[in-house]
Amino acid sequence: QVQLVESGGGLVQPGGSLRLSCKASGFTFSGYPMSWYRQVPGKERELVASISSFGGTTTYADSVKGRFTISRDNDKNTVYLQMNSLRPEATTVYFCYVKIILYDYWGQGTQVTVSS
Question: From CA 94, how far away is CA 81, in angstroms rounded?
Fold first, then answer.
């Protein structure tokens, strides 16, 4: 069965950094693009970043370009989101995501709080 287990969230001061991790299992990790989403209050989840199967292509939401970096280690079946220069508006739950043929899979979410 597919599992996405996230970690790395927590409390950080404005301007600080966090690195989120998503450990995947139950599928051929290197065969699929991976993504990070975050919860927009009162709306759908927002795509933050995505990365191609071997890491050659990345995409970012305009709001995080230049500050967030998505990466992956296919030997560890893990995708990361490095978040720098964090702002209070980044405070929300972040989710790991993969679409495998007919199905969508989500991690449980990890809370990021940016506050003084």
Answer: 10
Pairing state of beta strands 45-51 and 58-60? antiparallel
Residue 90: helix, strand or coil by DSSP?
A: helix
Write 4-9 long-range contacts (CB < 8 A, 24+).
4/96, 4/97, 4/98, 4/105, 4/106, 4/107, 4/108, 5/107, 5/108, 6/94, 6/95, 6/96, 6/107, 6/108, 6/109, 6/110, 7/110, 8/110, 9/93, 9/94, 9/110, 9/111, 9/112, 9/113
**Radius of gyration, CA atoms only, the chain:** 13
Tokens of 96: 């790991």
116 residues of the chain, pLDDT tens digit each: 999 999 999 999 999 999 999 999 999 999 999 999 999 988 999 999 999 999 999 999 999 999 999 999 999 999 999 999 999 999 999 999 999 999 999 999 999 999 99
Bridge partners for 96 per DSSP: 36
Task: Return the residue matching tokens 């990466």.
Answer: 71
